[in-house]
Amino acid sequence: MRVLTVNPGSSSLKLAVVDGGVVSAADHVAEWDGATRDELDDFAAAQPPVDAVSVRIVHGGRRRAPVVLDEDVLADLQRLVPLAPVHQPRSLTLARHARNLPAAVPVVGCFDTAFHADLPAHAATYALPRRWRDHYGLRRYGFHGLSLAHATRRTAEVLGRPLERLRLVCCHLGAGASVTAVVGGASVDTSMGFTPLEGVAMATRCGSIDPGIPLYLVREHGLAPSDVESALNVDSGLAGLSGTSGDIREVRRARARGDPDAALALDVYLHRLRREIAAQAVSTVEPDAVVLTGGVAEHQPELRAELFAESLLGVEVDADRNRGTGDRLISAQSSRTAAVLVTCQEELELARSGESVLADPPTHAPTSSPAIGRSIR
Question: Does 249 show up as a binding residue in the annotation?
Answer without folding.
Answer: yes
